[in-house]
Amino acid sequence: QQKVQQSPESLIVPEGGMASLNCTFSDRNSQYFWWYRQHSGEGPKALMSIFSNGDKKEGRFTAHLNKASLYVSLHIKDSQPSDSALYFCAASSGSWQLIFGSGTQLTVMP
Amino acid sequence: EAAVTQSPRNKVAVTGGKVTLSCNQTNNHNNMYWYRQDTGHGLRLIHYSYGAGSTEKGDIPDGYKASRPSQENFSLILELATPSQTSVYFCASGDAAGGGGTLYFGAGTRLSVL
After folding, report:
1. Would the CA dihedral through B44, B50, B51, B53 be positive or negative?
2. Looking at residue A97, what is its pLDDT?
3. pLDDT per residue as tens, chain A (110 positions)
4. Tell me: the pLDDT tens digits for B34-88?
5. Chain B residues with CB within 8 Å of chain A CB
6. Which residues in chain B have Cβ-Cβ distances shorter than 8 Å to A48?
7. Minimal Cα distance from A41: which residue of B?
8. Phi-psi category of residue A31: left, alpha or beta, with phi > 0 → left and psi -120 to 50 → alpha
């Protein structure tokens, strides 16, 4: 069964700094990869998806996927205090299930 | 933006009691999901549904039942609640199968079983 592991568990970066979040998955048949963000007291919200190997940039956020290495990452440039949240990586092999990692708690210090 | 509403937002139940968590979505999505969130475990899928009348087991279905009486509504039922079911529960809806589409989550229900 698919396992998704995230690192680090928690991360503190200064305002304006770069935050790098990592994720590995176990199923080589995985096709769809997502990053979700959850602010305290709210439900998770989709941040971005990546389905092909390489980089995908959306504003200050860049996702990277390497299917052969079973690895996906998220980089946040010019981090803002509003980026402080719990970030989930999720993967799907095309079945109905989207499997989530345990999350990385990001804190951006002003 | 897609709207998913959960009720109640907070619930305290007694061990052995019956608990029903409700979810309503107004986006005409075919797929709906129930997850629970626990520290260190992330989001784990309990049940999901393809459409009205269908329910399927997720990763951790034991102790839970689900009901999808209509396109808009999806309930999670704990027939005999136990303290191990204390958690935060999230409902989600989505418009694409196979993980290729965005999931829209509700704000969550915090359940304490005493």
Report:
1. negative
2. 76
3. 789 999 999 999 999 999 999 999 999 988 899 999 999 999 999 999 999 999 999 999 999 999 999 999 999 999 999 999 999 999 987 666 788 999 999 999 99
4. 999 998 888 999 999 989 999 999 989 999 999 999 999 999 999 999 999 999 9
5. 4, 31, 35, 40-45, 48, 50, 56, 58-59, 90, 92, 97-100, 102-108
6. none
7. B107
8. alpha
Q: Which residues contact A58 (CB under 8 A, 6 or more apart)?
A: A48
Token pair listed for A100: 């989530």
Contact call for residues A91 and A25 (beta carbons, < 8 A)? yes
Q: What is the DSSP letter of B27?
A: S
What's the rounded Cα separation, in Å, for the pair B15 and B85?
10
Q: Do B45 and A98 touch (CB under 8 A)?
A: yes
Nearest to B109 by CA among B23, B14, B1, B18: B23
